[in-house]
């Protein structure tokens, strides 16, 4: 007779206690404390470097330094509400700077984004040769700091020392790039030269993610490089193009370095030529920090509104 191993009663066959079941680690346990530990330095620096200055600027913009009597008394800080904002918006120099900045955007954004897109599509085309070399040559201007780039172009624009102006004069063409009528396109040229290469790399990277089998199928159907670029590549890189547009719009509102350097070489660029220069002049030349803070908040609000508009437009384009 074969002995069989005794079987456990059904009552003893039970699930393991709940305390022995491993629960997935979430943000509420040790993992959450570890994440908070690593994120704390970032949020601390972000609060000190970004949030605190913005709050301080907002508070500062509602006050003003007022002197009693005929202006010879001791200055006192007084709450003036929106008076600083009204004075900034009533300034002809500030409003003129906004109009000048709008013209700059209308010239700079199509040239830079269109040029970056064209270069990226050419680099991605099958006929492109020596891609690495062309990428380096296109990106190289962006490696030059903005101040140095402005100094280089200020030298190239100055009559009497510029080789470009000398060559043009030899051919019978007399151009003064620092003249009041040409100074805006001259500054646009500096920014396009400086930032096109950076955006070419961004768009070229997005083009590398386009499925090659889709392009091969299009070529098999008889589509050429131009048709494939417009009908397949361009729609697939619209998200990257939207990001570039967003950053470009924000960057144009921060225009400061190029006109500040060029102003040393020509009287066509004043100290209040664009809104950022107006705020700088108010803070460090006229020593009116309250109006400078109000102007900075106005510029930030303009950037927020334009960013929202670009984001909405881009989302509709991506859904179309």
From TrEMBL:
The keyword Cell membrane applies. It is a multi-pass membrane protein. It comes from the Bacteria. SUPFAM superfamilies: MetI-like. GO terms for cellular component: plasma membrane. Signal peptide: none annotated. The keyword Hydrolase does not apply. It is found in: Cell membrane. Keywords: Cell membrane, Membrane, Sugar transport, Transmembrane, Transmembrane helix, Transport. Residues 104-310 form the ABC transmembrane type-1 domain. The chain crosses the membrane at residues 35-64, 101-122, 134-156, 236-256, 292-311. Its main location: membrane. One of its GO terms (biological process) is transmembrane transport. Belongs to the binding-protein-dependent transport system permease family. This is Multiple sugar transport system permease protein. The lineage of its organism: Bacteria, Bacillati, Actinomycetota, Actinomycetes, Micrococcales.
